Amino acid sequence: MRLYFLLARREPPVPSPLLVEVAGRLRARGFEVESGTPEEMLVEGDRLATSHDLYVLKSHTELALSLAASLHAQGARIVNPVPACAAAHDKVLAVQRLRTSGVPVPRTYVTGDVRRIRELLEECGPLVVKPLRGYRGVGVHLVRSPHDLAALPPLDSPVMVQDLIAGPGEDLKVYVVGTQVWAVHKPFAPGSFSAAGRPAPVAPEVEAIALRAGAACGLGLFGIDVIESPDGPVVVDLNAFPGYKGCEGVADPMTAYIADYAENRRELPLPPLGPVPDAAPLTAVLPPAV
Asked: Which pLDDT score, from 0 to 100, does residue 150 have?
C-alpha cells in the first residue's frame, strides 16, 4: 500500500524525529511511504488527482488543507479526515463541539471590534485573545487591563476572546493516538511551541476529557491544551496531529494506528453537533454599539 505524508514546514528545517521513525516502521511493515511539504512543491491545482491509498495530513496550513480537501472530494482516504481537520481548524466550531460534548471550556466570544473586547474586559475581567485560525500559539495575547488592550495589534481579522482561566502558570499539553494518552507540562511563552516540556502523569479525569474531545471532533491523532484550574481541568485549545514533543513511546502506537487505518479502511465519523446548552442567539450576546 502507498502512503503519502503531507508535512508542515519546520523551524529549523529538519525532519521530525518522530515522523522519521514512524515512516521507517511503516516501511518495515511493507508500506511505500512518500512525503512532501505543499509550500515547497509546485502542484498542478487544476489537475490534482489521488495517487495513494492513504494520505497522512500532518500540516495545518491553508494550502495543505486546501489540497487535502481536493483529494477528499475525489474520494481519497485521509487521516485525520478532512472534515474533522477543518472543524478543528475553525476555533469557533471546535469550542462549540467540545462544549456540547461535555468537555469543560472557557466562556468564549468572537468579534472583530476592539470595543467589544473592552466591554468584555470591564464585565468579565482578564481575557485571552487569539486568532480564529491560529496555531502554535501565534497571535495569542493576554489582556488583563486597559493597558494590555491598548497594546493589542490592530484587529485585521476576527478574533476569539475567552475568559482567562486561573491555573498554575503552565499548560498541560495532552496528546492522543487512538485511545492512548500522554501529557507534558509546559509554560506558555513565546517560543514554547518548540520546547519539549516535562512528561506528566495523565489523571483519569484528563484522559476521559481527552477521549471525549476526540470523539466529539472526529479525531484520532490530536492534542488538547488544558489548564488545571482550582475547579478542575479546562480545555483551552484543540489541534489535529500535533508534534507530541516530550512524549515517550509514541512511534509504535502511531505506526500501528496509521497501518490499521490504511489496511482495515478505518473511518472516523464527524458526529453531528449536539444541542447547545444555554444557547445564545447572535443578537443576545451584547447590545449594539450604536
From this structure: 93
Q: How many residues does the chain have?
A: 290
pTM (2 d.p.): 0.91
Q: Residue 1: which of 55, 37, 44 has the closest Cα?
A: 55
The C-alpha angle with vertex 219 and arms to 217 and 220, in degrees rounded to 5, equals 150
Cβ 188 vs Cβ 147: under 8 Å: no
Spatial distance between the Cα atoms of 225 and 248, rounded to a whole number of angstroms = 18
Cell of 143: 489582556
Contact 105, 95 (CB under 8 A): yes
pLDDT tens for 95-149 read 999 999 999 999 999 999 999 999 999 999 999 999 887 666 678 999 999 999 9
